[in-house]
Amino acid sequence: MIKAFHHKLHAKRFSKTNKTKPKKEEKKIEEEKYDEKNFIICEYDIKEIDEAVQILNCFEESSCSNEGLENEEELRENCILYLNDQKIDFCFKYEFKKEGKYIIKIICKKPLKTTNYMFCECSTLTSVDLSNFNTENVTNMNSMFRECSNLTYLNLSNFNTSKVTNMSHMFRKCSSLIFLNLSSFNTNNVLNMSYMFRECSNLTNLNLTHFNTEKVTNMSYMFLECTKLAVLNIKTFNTSQVINMESMFFKCGSLKDLDITNFKTDNVTNMSWMFSDCTSLNDINLKNFVTDNVINMGSMFSHCTSLKNLDLSNFNNSKVENMSWMFSHCSSLENLDISNFELNASCDVKYMFSSMNKTCNVICKNQKLFEMSKDV
Questions:
Q1: At CA 215, angle to CA 213 and CA 217, rounded to 5?
Q2: DSSP secondary structure code for residue 74 in this structure
Q3: CA distances (Å), 249 to each of 57, 194, 269, in order?
Q4: 160 contacts 186 by C-beta, under 8 angstroms
Q5: How, if at all, do strands 309-311 and 205-207 pair?
Q6: What are the tens digits of pLDDT across the range 263-282?
Q7: Would you tell me which of 60, 127, 202, 215 could form a disulfide with 43, CB atoms 3.0–4.6 Å apart?
Q8: pLDDT greater than 60 at residue 32
Q9: Residues 184 and 54 in one domain
Q10: Where in the sequence is the domain holding 74, given as residue range(s)?
Q11: Residues 43, 138: one domain?
C-alpha cells in the first residue's frame, strides 16, 4: 500500500512537472517573437488633433491607390507599436490627445516581404530611422515614403534592397527632403524606377553613385519636378533595357549640365517631355542617342529656354508618330541640327517650332517639314 501510494505521488509529481514545463517554453518562444532587433523609429509632429492621423499605411487604407488590399494583413500580424515607450493597439491611424512631437517605435516580429505604401501620405512624419529595419526579404517598395511631405530626415543605412524589383514612386512628393544618400542601395534586380523622386521639390543633394540600373525598363517621370536639383550624377546608369523615358527630367529647372553620354536608348519608345522645362539647361550632348524605336518625341525639348545649341543629326525619326511642340519656346536656341529628320505623313508635327527663337539656324534637309510645323 505504501509503495502504491509513493508510486501514485511520483506519477502525480511527474505529471505536474510535464504540465508546467511546456508553459515555460511557450513563454520563451513568445518573448523571442517580440525580439527588438528589427524595428523602425518614427517621429511625428502633430499640429492638429481634430481627427485621427495617418501613422502607417497599406494599399487598402491609401487614397493614392485603388489596387486593393495587399500588405495590410502582413503589417497587422507582424508589427507591434509603441508610442513614447507605451505599447498601443496596432492601427494605421491614431488619435493623438494633444499637439506636439511623438516617437513611435514599430517592432517587426519577422522580416516583412513587402513595404509598398508603408508610410504613404503620413504627412505629419518628420523623421524615420530604418537603420535597424530588416528588409532582406522585401521585393516591393513602391510608394513606401510617397507624399511624406514633412519628412526631413531619413536614415537608410543598412537598408537591404537586394531583392527589390519595384521602387516606383518610392520618394514621390517628399517635398521637405533636402539630402538623400542612396549610395548603399543594391538595385541589381530593380525593374521599375518610374516616379521615384517625382516632386522632391527641395532636394538639392541626391547621391545615386552605386545605382545598378541594368534591369530597369521604366524611368518615366523619375526626376520630374526636382526643381532645386542643380547637380545630378547619373554617369553610371545603364539604360540598355529602358523602354520608357517620358518626362524623365521634366521641370528640373535648376539643372545647368546633364551628362547622359553613357545612356543607351536602343529600346526606348517614348521620349516625350523628357527635357521639357529644363529652363537652366544650356547644353546637352545626345550624340550617342539611338532613336530607331522611338514613337513619341512630343514636347521633348519644349521650354528649354536657356538651350543654345542642339545637335540631333544622329536622330532617326522614321518610326516617330508625335513630334508636336518638340522645340516650342526654345527661345535662346541659336543652332539646331535635325538634318537626318524625315517627313512622316502620319506624324503629328503641330507647333513643333512654335515660339522658338526666330533667328535660330535650323539645319533641316526637308524644308517642307520645317515650314509645315513652324506655326499652325
A1: 95
A2: H
A3: 29, 11, 16
A4: yes
A5: unpaired
A6: 999 999 999 999 999 999 99
A7: 127
A8: no
A9: yes
A10: 36-205
A11: yes
